[in-house]
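Narrative summary of target 7.
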Amino acid sequence: VDFLKLDIEGAELAALLGCGGWLSPATITTVQFEYGGTTLDAGKRLRDFFDLLIPRGYRVAKLFPGWIDVRSYDGRFDNFYYSNWVAVAEPESR
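Modeled conformation, tokenized:
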């Protein structure tokens, strides 16, 4: 899978967890997911996405019009403002 887009109203992390061993750069190169109030409603945080994706060989970035900003986790990101994020396979993980 080259690109997996998740827009499932707060269930994005559950869907990723449901991928099990398939959630790896060798199988899914790029994952786009939404983050915001529905994430809070689901009892999850942005940190949960970082904790799941980074050890599996992904870089996490916030999407902006025309560019992405690769980031390390910072607690200030857990503000539950609507935003789109992307996890991109590290080149050596493909």
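The mean pLDDT is 92.
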